[in-house]
Amino acid sequence: MLLDRHQSQLLIVDIQERLVPAMTAPEDLIAQVQKLCAGARELAVPITVSEQYPKGIGATVGAVREAAGNGARMFDKLHFSCARDEKIAMRINELGHVHQRQQLVICGIESHVCVLQSAVDFQAAGYQVAVVADAVSSRSDHSKTIALDRLRQNGVNIVTTEMVLFEWLEVAGTEQFRTVSKLIK
Predict the structure, then answer these.
(1) 62: domain range?
(2) Which of 22, 78, 97, 110 is the most exposed place for a label (fewest CB within 10 A)?
(3) Using the 8-state DSSP alphabet, how is residue 111 labeled?
């Protein structure tokens, strides 16, 4: 499957103040998520952001909150899987079924817990799920590697930020191409 911006939605999972410092390569993670957000905003791809128990773990980091923009919908949760949280599932399903956005692009932390459980659950629910390998992280590279392997075994597509952006663009030579391609350079 190739990603189509008209059929896609972006889910940012738990990139929160007290979690990010414990991740491997947190600056790289934030930079890739910012690129995804900028591309999504430019190409009118809806953004949903989850926060795992924000009272204890903190809010979404400011750089991601700013990149996601005012149009992004924010949800707090207690379930590890976003698909098992009623409010988030309702948002994803509304976009998926009412607005025909059955492709779910997922980034965030931790790869082997909330990202994995969300991706597997949404895949089982009939979504075409793509996890962005360079925009997910865990406390160890080993956990991330095992998570990406397990996601593949469950039929989840593994992509990169650049793949997502250029598949969403589909064609060069447009103003949107000029804007979004600058994110990669």
Answers:
(1) 8-181
(2) 78
(3) I
Strands (E), 83-184: 103-109, 128-137, 157-159
Tally of domains in the chain = 1
CB-neighbour burial class of residue 31 (10 A; exposed 0-12, middle 13-18, buried 19+): middle
Three-state SS at 130:
strand
**Within a domain: 2:** no
Tokens standing for residue 60: 């979404």
Query: Which pair of structure tokens corresponds to residue 79?
Result: 């379930």
The residue type found at 104 is L
Residue ranges of the chain whose pLDDT lies below 70: none
Give the count of beta carbons closer than 10 Å to the beta carbon of residue 18.
12
CATH number for the domain that contains residue 156: 3.40.50.850
Residue 172 maps to a domain: yes
Q: What's the residue count for the chain?
A: 185
